[in-house]
Design goal:
heterodimer; A: 302 residues; alpha/beta; Rossmann fold; Alpha-Beta Plaits; 2 domains; six-stranded mixed beta sheet; four-stranded antiparallel beta sheet; 14 strands; 34% helix; 28% strand; B: 242 residues; 9 helices; globular
């Protein structure tokens, strides 16, 4: 059985096509990521899965329930963390948790085991109003509230956006912990480097799924020979690489620039000669394995 | 530092009641530098930026920005810096050209200069055909690039970018950084905050704030050596976790 099963789903807002005929499945126990920039359609998709908006075309089943007909069942069995912080700012940490537990007909104590590892970060601040928490703490509280009724599926819309790298790491460790508990999670993120933390990912852009698979498989499938290069004059190097005729793609990646030659037209010696004519001599380069962001850029170009 | 100091902060401090948001911070930023200003949420970055932009009076210490005092010359600071945040403030119901005209006018530029700048910017962004389109009809990444150029239309000595690339696709993010490199090469100082650690690598120097203090400040290469890390992400985690 699939936990989520989506067939040919489309949704438009006026002339804007937010989702264009997308299909995918999520299996039990998976940590499944939707990776893509703003405007890709991530939020629209997750809102359809949580029954908050109705698709124009296609079908979606969540936990075996139809998102349009059986919306009540979906709402009581899914844990949802929306992109915008949606807890009660004027209630304390503890009060928010109790409130969400009560709504779902349970208690904080009943499912405490599930949230224990996350709640330990919050416990010192349990009397503090939610509105006064830092970004990382708000996000942890929102996750606890989404988990309080022991949902069969967790749906998280950009939980790590705008959060610093340390809190992001902690958050993903928590998702790993929940996976070990057997919880299925669908999570969206604009951060490409988070793809490798998912079991499978869908790369999504402008309402289309560009590709969908295990991160390691995505890289293999779209593999092209790629180099990383750097020099002390990075801006000059970028400009020169872009002007060199045998080069296909040039993208800055941290301290290096990643580039590929045109298919069948690899000539490192000619490139070095050309760069030195441009006055760029102190270069350091190496062949590298592309990562998900390289693959995403490559798929966007197609 | 032998180049001109565009930011010169000494023992800069800001307290809110008993809480010390920025605690005795000293650093300089030179002309044409791309300076990355990193830190965890709540470390004091926003408070520090507000003081440097003349929006918040410090409690103690001293600082000049573009040569002007952050205590006494805040209006001059505002005229001589550029600022862009993730919620950049272009007008959705104005056209591309009207937005540039508006901001040029706010900074007191003459009409012919604004027109020349508009021509130049649109050519640079390859957006000449979008000149008379409403801003709201453009994709996010284009708006962000336009917002950056708008922030430097009055040729400030320094531009502050507060998480400028949040949410844009990987290609647009890189095009944005190419614009930043170009501005720096032409002598504009760029002061940037980001949560993308690969972008931290694009900076000439990085400062890392922890609990109101600057816990580390150096080039990305030296920071990685010092903290025995292979990426800036690792450096960040090591410093922030103490």
């Amino acid at each position: 059985m699939s936990i989520v099963k989506v067939n040919n789903l489309s949704k438009s807002y006026g002339k804007t096509e937010a989702l264009k005929d997308i299909s995918f499945e999520v299996k039990p126990g998976e940590l499944f990521g939707f990776i893509g920039p703003d405007g890709a359609g991530k939020t629209t998709l997750l809102r359809i899965l949580t029954s908050l908006i109705i698709p124009d075309k296609g079908t979606a089943e969540v936990l075996g329930y139809d998102v349009v007909k059986d919306y009540r069942k979906i709402r009581s069995s899914v844990g949802y963390m929306p992109g915008r912080f949606s807890l009660y700012q004027d209630l304390s940490v503890e009060e928010n948790l109790k409130f969400f537990a009560t709504i779902f007909g349970t208690t904080l104590e009943e499912n405490y085991n599930l949230i224990k590892n996350i709640y330990i970060y919050l416990e010192p601040f349990k009397k503090r109003k939610a509105g006064k928490l830092s970004g990382g703490m708000k996000q942890k509280l929102a996750l606890c509230c989404a988990l309080i009724h022991k949902p069969d599926l967790l749906i998280l819309d950009e939980p790590t956006t705008g959060v610093d790298p340390v809190s992001r790491d902690e958050f993903w460790e928590m998702l790993g912990g929940l996976k070990a508990e057997g919880i299925t999670t669908v999570v969206s993120t604009p951060y490409m480097d988070e793809a490798k933390l998912c079991d499978r990912v869908a790369l999504i852009q402008k309402g289309n799924i560009l590709d969908i698979d295990k991160p390691s498989e995505l890289i293999k499938r779209n593999y092209r020979k790629m180099y990383a290069i750097k020099s002390d004059n990075m801006y000059g190097l970028i400009k020169s690489l872009n002007e060199f005729e045998n080069i296909d793609s040039v993208n800055i990646f941290g301290e290096y620039i990643h580039f590929t030659f045109n298919e069948g037209d690899e000539n490192m010696d000619a490139l070095k000669k050309y760069l030195s004519e441009k006055g760029i001599t102190e270069i350091e380069y190496k062949e590298i394995k592309p990562d998900i962001e390289d693959i995403f850029i490559e798929l966007m170009r197609k | 530092m032998n180049m001109e100091k565009i930011i010169d902060a000494e023992n800069l401090t800001k307290k809110f009641g008993n809480f010390i948001a920025v605690n005795d911070v000293t650093f300089q930023v030179g002309q044409g530098e791309i300076f990355g200003f990193l830190g965890a949420n709540g470390a004091g970055k926003t408070t520090a930026i507000k003081m440097l932009c003349g929006l918040l009076t410090p409690t103690g210490g001293k600082a000049t920005v573009a040569g002007f005092d952050v205590f006494k010359e805040t209006e001059k600071i505002k005229n001589n810096i550029g600022y862009m945040s993730q919620r950049f403030s272009l007008y959705e119901d104005l056209t591309v050209a009207e937005n540039l005209e508006f901001y040029g006018g706010v900074y007191g530029l003459r009409k012919n200069i604004i027109k020349d700048k508009t021509d130049y910017f649109l050519k640079l962004l390859n957006m000449e055909e979008e000149r008379n389109k409403l801003l709201k009809s453009l994709p996010l990444g284009w708006k962000q690039k336009l917002a950056f150029l708008t922030a430097i239309i009055h040729e400030p000595k320094i531009v502050f970018l507060d998480e400028p690339t949040g949410g844009v696709d990987p290609v647009m993010r890189r095009q944005f950084w190419t614009l930043i490199y170009k501005a720096a090469e032409e002598g504009t100082t760029v002061f940037v905050t980001t949560h993308y650690m690969d972008e931290a690598e694009y900076c000439g120097r990085i400062s890392m704030m922890v609990d109101g203090k600057i816990a580390a400040l150096d080039t990305p290469t030296k920071l990685k050596e010092k903290f025995n890390a292979s990426t800036m992400h690792e450096v960040f985690v090591k410093i922030a976790r103490g």
